[in-house]
Amino acid sequence: SKWRTPWQEMGDFADYIVVQPDEKVFTMDEVSKHASPDDCWVVLHGRVYDLTKFAMGHVGGSKLITDLAGKDGTDVFEASHGENVLNSVRADCCLGLIDVSTILDEHRVAATLR
Predict the structure, then answer these.
(1) How many other C-beta atoms are found inside a 10 Å radius of the C-beta of residue 34?
(2) Which residues contact 20 (CB under 8 A, 6 or more apart)?
(3) What kind and span of H or E run contains 96?
(4) % of the chain at pLDDT higher than 70
(5) Most distant CA pair in the chain: distance in Å?
(6) CA 68 to CA 35: how far, in whole Å?
(7) Residue closest to 97 by CA, chosen among 48, 42, 45
(8) Residue 108 carries which DSSP code?
(9) What is the pTM assigned to this prediction?
């Protein structure tokens, strides 16, 4: 298939990724166009999520999510959440998969100690 995804890059979450045959695949170029609090797409563990509405109700504050808009926020997410959080928002927020070959270092947001 044209859209092979190296799931080994997804770490422990690879076991939880089930690819649907008709699932849309996005590039980071597409994701990066949705990089504002009013249009907030974030890549988490190989999937693209529209977190625009979800961010408003985020317990830690919307800025923690909107700062990741248009980026791969996997490292930041993984530092404080488990796969149960992704499972809880997948149905409402997941848009599809990311073509991981399009993720560059500049797209990744590193987790920092606060």
Answers:
(1) 19
(2) none
(3) strand 94-98
(4) 80
(5) 42
(6) 8
(7) 48
(8) B
(9) 0.79
